[in-house]
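Take a look at the protein record below and flag anything odd:
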Amino acid sequence: MGKDSYLVGLIGSGIGPSLSPALHHREAGRQGLRYLYRIIDIDTLGVPPEAVGDLVRAARDLGFDGLNITHPCKQLVIEHLDALAPQAEALGAVNTVVFEDGRAVGHNTDVTGFAASFARGLPDVPLDRVVQLGAGGAGAAVAHAVLTLGAGRVTVVDALPERATALADALNAHFGPGRAGPAGPELLADLLAKADGVGGLVHATPTGMAAHPGLPLPAELLHPGLWVAEVVYRPLETELLRTARAAGCAVLDGGGMAVFQAADAFRLFTGREPDSARMLADFAELAGPARALR
């Protein structure tokens, strides 16, 4: 029988509005666990993303059972861990750290969370050509997810060409030659035109978050032949989703990914099976009535 008391946290930037604490607390309460989930915001602390290693060591010394890691620390944290689960190693990004026998072990539940959300929310959309904005930690996870779900080819667009190339190379090494390629933002219009009717857009940058408002691309590039999937969930209705829906696109908000990755992290922290359906209902209530999860 596992223990019944847990101390976990979330490290990232601008994470005050995160719903992760409430999702974990509610599920833990239903399972009779004492569970404290703390926010560790590097902006509030006044430290740079590179301080993630110090924060992980401090959490381990203070008796934390685990941590979630979010933007902009998912890749920076890796060098400070003792081991990586196979999926985290393949992704080159970590969003969950479990402290086991004095060791810090990195996992990635973003990839399974996005895959579960996508299969639930956009089950029948074409996946021949997928254009992805963002090649950071979340981008690595969602690119792996869409290729696992059967995407023909993913083109990774990032403002940093070397980052897009590195992710595309890693995807091809894992899934086979020709499954991914890099591109600069100047090619976005052409890429989305070619995806019309045969694919869609995955957005995996911080743009649209409460601390980073706005659109990640010109609105005129969206048209009804595309589907649009978002990873941002605070706010749940980002400007990108509003614009895409108005343009006639099928859309997927970031709420499902947030819930399913949280459920997978809860399992890793506690060894107990979460009820994802209950957590989806929790999220719909916590996020407010504006856009309930489908």
Notes: Residues 255-270 form the longest helix (16 residues). The mean pLDDT is 94.
